[in-house]
Design a protein that fits this description.
The chain is an all-alpha fold. The protein is 74% helix and 0% strand. The longest helix has 92 residues. It comes from Aphanomyces astaci.
Length: 148
């Protein structure tokens, strides 16, 4: 289990070492490098390594939480801006509708008044016509068409 880590460390040190070869990717895979004895870790070293792993995972967790909070704050700003735009649009639409309704009610009021006046005028002329037909002193001549 430790062998791949050991090989990886060996490769890393070979890359960073001041080798006389010009190629930085020249690795020495001789068997003598792979057969170095594995030194067992002491209890303190294992404990220190575990503490380092815990600290690293806790740091990663805090970083993930921080990034998520930042993303959520950015999303909150965007959503609040969208809400403000939508609210403004709906308020303007409500104002337009209110103005249009007031205008239509005014027009409707004028039209009703004109209908009442027209009905009153028509009633007046009907009454006048009826009076003319029933009056003995006034002779009513219905309109005729000229056929000349």
């Amino acid at each position: 289990m430790r062998r791949p880590v050991h090989v990886q460390d060996q490769l890393y040190h070979e890359v960073l070492s001041d080798d006389c070869s010009d190629n930085p990717f020249h690795f020495n895979f001789d068997d003598d490098h792979l057969r170095q004895p594995i030194i067992p870790l002491s209890k303190e070293a294992k404990l220190a390594r575990r503490r380092a792993q815990i600290a690293k995972s806790a740091q990663k967790h805090r970083l993930r939480i921080r990034e998520e909070i930042e993303a959520l704050q950015t999303q909150q700003v965007q959503l609040e801006a969208a809400l403000a735009r939508a609210t403004l649009w709906w308020k303007e639409a409500a104002t337009r509708e209110r103005d249009a309704r007031a205008a239509s009610e005014t027009i409707n009021k004028h039209l009703r008044q004109m209908v009442r006046q027209t009905k009153s005028c028509a009633k007046h002329w009907r009454d006048y016509k009826q009076e003319m037909q029933q009056s003995p002193t006034i002779i009513y001549y219905p309109p005729t068409t000229n056929s000349n």
